[in-house]
Amino acid sequence: MSKQNNESSNEKNQYFLFVANKDIYAITALEVIEIVEYQNITKVPMMSDFVSGVTNIRGNLIAVIDLLQRFGIKQTQIYDTTSLVILRKRHFNKELQIAVIIDQVYEVDDISAENIESTPDFGTRIDKYFIKNMAKYNDEYIAVLDIDTVLDIKELSILAKEKSSKDKG
Amino acid sequence: MTEELQLFCEDMDEQLSIMEDTLMDMSEISIEAVDSEMINKLFRAMHTMKGNAGMFGFDDVVSFAHVAENLLDQVRNKKIVLTQAMLELFLLVNDHSRTLIDVTVQDEQLDDDQLTCHNDILAQLSAFSGLGKPDVLDLKSDKKESEAEEAVVDKISSYHITIKPKDSFFKSDMDIMAIIKYLGVIGDVTNLTIEDSDIPDIKQLEPLKSYLTLSMQYQCEEPIDEIVAAFEFVKDDIDLSIININEKIETENTESVEPAVVEPSIAEKAKPTSNALAKPIKKKETRVEKNFSLRVDSSKVDQLINLISEMVIANAKITQIADMDDNIELLEAADTLTSMLEEIRTGVMDIRMVQVGSSFNKLRRIVNDTAKKLGKQIEFVISGEDTELDKSVVEKISDPLVHMLRNSVDHGIESMEKRIANGKKEKGRIDLRAYPDAGSIVIEVEDDGAGIPKEIILAQAIKNKLVSPTAQLTDKEIYNLIFAAGLSTAESVSDVSGRGVGMDVVKRNIEELKGTVDVDSTLGQGSKITVCLPLTLAIIDGFLVQSGDTKFIIPLEMIQECIELTSENRSNMKNNEFINLRGSILPLLDIGDYFDINRVDYERENIIIVNSGNQIAGLIVHELHGEFQTVIKPLGEVFEKISWISGGTILGNGEVALILDVPMLLSHIV
Known about the structure:
The complex is a heterodimer.
Chain A: E1 3-4, E2 14-20, E3 23-28, E4 32-37, E5 51-57, E6 60-66, H1 67-70, E7 83-91, E8 94-102, E9 104-110, E10 116-117, E11 131-137, E12 140-145, H2 147-150, H3 153-156
Parallel strand pairs in A: 3-12, 6-8
Antiparallel strand pairs in A: 1-4, 2-3, 2-9, 4-7, 5-6, 7-8, 10-11, 11-12
Chain B: H1 3-28, H2 36-55, H3 59-76, H4 84-105, H5 112-128, H6 148-152, E1 157-165, H7 176-186, E2 187-195, E3 213-220, H8 224-230, E4 238-244, H9 249-254, H10 265-270, H11 275-287, H12 298-324, H13 328-351, E5 353-355, H14 357-374, E6 378-383, E7 388-390, H15 391-412, H16 416-421, E8 428-437, E9 440-447, H17 454-463, H18 475-480, H19 503-512, E10 516-522, E11 526-534, E12 539-547, E13 550-555, E14 559-565, H20 567-573, E15 578-581, E16 584-590, H21 591-594, E17 605-612, E18 615-621, E19 623-631, E20 645-650, E21 656-660, H22 662-669
Parallel strand pairs in B: 6-8, 13-21, 16-18
Antiparallel strand pairs in B: 1-3, 1-4, 2-3, 5-7, 8-9, 9-11, 10-11, 12-13, 12-19, 14-17, 15-16, 17-18, 20-21
C-alpha cells in the first residue's frame, strides 16, 4: 500500500499532513518519497531512543526514526493505521532516505504561501527547533516540520552509550 | 567518445598489455632464450594495433606502428638479431604507442617533448632495421606509409582487384569503402576507379540498386588469402576478382593511369556509418589472441544481485502463503524457484570474480623498473595467478601492492655489494603469491632481503612519538609499526620510497577492503607481508543467530565452534565472565547484555566461539538459525558510528539482521 506523492504543477505549495499523537503535522510534499504500511523494524543496539532501527524497503536498508521520541514526547504506539513515511534528506552531496513513524496519514493538500506564517518564539507543543514555520489549514495552525533539523544526521548518529565511543582514540 | 572509439581504446589497451607482458617475459630470460613464439606474439599485437588504428584512419599511429612492426618482422625472419637494447626500445615503443593513441583519440597533437620522443624512437627503430632516414613526423603529420617499407620488403605482390557489388548490395548495410580503407592499411591502394558505365538512363534507374564497379591496383606483402579475408563480410554481396599481376609491376607502377582520387558519392550516401564494417573485422582479429569476454559495468551486476535478493524475499512470501493454504503444489513450485534463484545468485556473483593474474603481471614492470633505477638485480616470482577475487577488490588491491613491492625492492633487497658481502646470491628474490585460504584470499609479498631492523623501527617510532619509550612491544607489534603514518627508516629519502607515506596508506586501503595485513621478518633473511582479503565485498558466508528479538549474522570464517552453555557451565562460572574450555580460559560476552536487548527466557543458551587474529572469545546468544548466504548492505549514515556492526542483510522473510564485525567488537571490549 504505497502512495507516490503527486508532483503536479504547484508542487511547492503541496504539503503532506499526518497525525502523530493526535496532533497534525505537515511536511513539504517534495520531501516525501513514499508512504508504506508499518512493517517489521530491526532495532540497532546502542542507538538513541528515537532511532527505532532499520527496515527493509524493497531491498534497501533504511533507518527509522520515532518522531514522538525525537520530539521528546513519548514512544510511538503501533496501531492499524501506523505508517512509515520515507523522506529524502540531503547530507553533504548525497540524498539519503530516512523513514519516520506516523500514526496516520491525514491529507495531501495545497497550502498557499499567504497561509504560511513564521513560528512563534514559544508556545508550540514541540520545540521550535524542529519547526520550519506554521501553516494555517482549515482555520487551524499546524507545524510544518523542518526535516533538516528533525533528521540531523549528526544528532541521529550519536550513540546512546558513551562508553562505546572510546574506539575513537 | 563514440562507442566504436571506446571499443577501439579498450582493444588497444589490451594489445599494449599483451606487448608489455611479452616484453617483460622476454627481459626476464636471457636474450638467447627468446623464442620465435614470443616475437610472433609481439608482432601480432603490433600488427593488430596497426590494423585497428588504420580502421579509424589514425595515420600517425599506423605509420609509427608500421616502423616498429617492420623491425619486428625482420627479427621474426631472423634478418636481424634481437638485442637487449632492442627490448628496451620496444618498451619505449610500447609506452609511446599509448601516448600516441591517447593523443590521437583526444584529437590533439603531440607536444614538443612527445614529438622529440616520437622522432627519437623512430630514429632508433630505423637504425636497428638498418635503414637510413626514418619517416620522421612533423607537426602537420600528414605522412602515410613509410617509404622504408618498400626498401625492406622485397616480396611485394601486385594485384588487380575488381569489386562489383551485386544489385542488392546496399541492403546488406555494409560499407565497401571501409574495406578499401583497411586494404590501404595493410598495403597500397592505387588507381582506384569507379566504373559507372552500368548506370542506366535516369528513368530506369532504381536508387536502391548498385550499378557501380570498383577497380584498383593493389600492392601488399600479405598473401592473397589475407586480401580475400578482408572481404569476408561482404563476400556474398559482391563479385570479387583478384588477379595477381606481379610480373607487370614494373611497367604499371611508373605510369599513372587515371586520376586516382574517387569520391564514392553513392556508396557513401547509402551508408551513413563507415565504422559498421570496421568493427567486425577488428573483432575477428583480436579473437585469435584471447577468449571472448564481456566488459560490463559493475553496477549492472550489483543491480542484478539486488533484484535477485528481492526475488528471494518475494518467493519467501509465496512459500508462506502456500504454507498457510496448505497448497502443496504451490509449495513445490516455490521450492524449485528457491533453488534456482540460489543458482542464479551464485552465477551472478561469479561474474564479479576475476583472476588476479593480469593485474599481477602489471606489477612485474614496476618491480623491473624500480630495480633498474636502484641498480639492483631482482628475480620476481609470481605464483597463484589463477586465484579468483572480486573484481572490485582486485582493482583496489593493486595500488597497495605497488607500494609494498616498491618498498621491498628499495628497503628490503640490499645492494648487490652488500648481498655478496653477506654471502647471499647477488640477485635478490621477491615472491608474490596468491592463494585461497578458508573463505578468504591471501596475498603474500616475500623478499629475501635484509629484514626489518627492529631496534631502528622502535627508536624511530619513539622519536616520532608513535609509541611511548616505556612501552613493552612484542616483535610483531614492532613490525606492524611500519604501517604507522610518518615512519620512515630509510637512511635517505629516495624517489622510490622512504618518505614515510605509503605503508600507512597500504594498511588503510586494505582495511577498507575489510582485509587484514601482517608483517613478519627475520633480520638478515628477509621479510614477508601477508594480506588477507575477503573473497568479495558484496557477499559473505554468515551464521545467523538471535539474541532476544534481534538477529545477528556472524561471519562464518570467524567461527571456530558452537557449544551449549549448560547450567553446569553457568554454576562453574561463579559470576566470572569466562568458562573453562578444555583446559583453557574462554572469555565470554553476552551479546544480549552487552547490547541491552530485551531479555526473554530461553530454553538454552549457546556459545559461539569466535577466533579473530590471536583472540578467542565466546559470544553468548540464544538461538542458532544456521548458515546464511549474506548479502552485505550498508546501514547508512545514521549508524556510521557503530563500528562493530559492519552492515545489515535482508533475511528470507524480509526482516533485517545485523552483521557483527567480530574483530571490532572484540577490540572494543578489551
